[in-house]
Amino acid sequence: MQFLHNSSLLLKSFWFIAVPISLMFLIQTLAFLTGLDIMDQSENYNSILNEEDSAFHFFSLKSLIHFLFAFSWTGILLYSFIEEPLSLFALSVASGILFVFVCAYIIKKVQLSRIDSSFKIQHAINQTAEVFAAIPENKKGTGKIRIQQNGISQELEAVTEHGQIEMGTLVKVEKITAGVLVVKLIRE
Questions:
Q1: DSSP code, position 4
Q2: E strand map for the chain
């Protein structure tokens, strides 16, 4: 790093932070993208994005790496354009903080996309549903219900062992028989 020999202390500091942090950031990013992430990203970033105990998680190793990465590279890139050291330092700090929040948002979205959102009929047992098409009495035919699971609304066939259930009525899933939900009326 011969080019730093005659540079100011501020620029040298930015470079001495940027080089090792960039390597750590690269390793951390590759580990996250390949699923080999050792630490749980979602725990760190759930708290940053307005969930419980945010002060504790804001100061995690991952967010520190993100902050220092943006802080140092902003300082290096803007050093020639901003002559006032205090302004450059303040802008670098602001950039680092913004980068932590941007990374938190992106990681949170990636974590949510990894959640299994497939509908599993066996998880419908004991769930409440709304009758979408009337259900005939005593298993004399099928009707349809609308049920929510993992944030997804599904319309499924249903029967009842009791009296007819009209559209718009709330029911509870009792069991599954031959792939069809058996429901009962919820009495209020």
A1: G
A2: 128-133, 143-149, 152-160, 170-177, 180-185
pLDDT tens column, 1-29: 677 778 899 999 999 999 999 999 999 88
**In Å, what is the CA distance from 102 to each residue of 76, 106, 118?**
20, 6, 28
Residue 46 CA to residue 113 CA, distance in Å, equals 14
Which residues are CB-neighbours of 13 under 8 A, at least 6 positions away?
75
What residue ranges in 49-169 does DSSP mark as E strands? 128-133, 143-149, 152-160
pLDDT tens digit sequence for 129-165: 999 899 999 999 999 999 988 777 888 999 999 999 9
CA distance 131 to 135: 8
Query: What are the tokens at 148?
Result: 């929510």
Phi and psi torsions of 90, nearest 5°: -65, -40
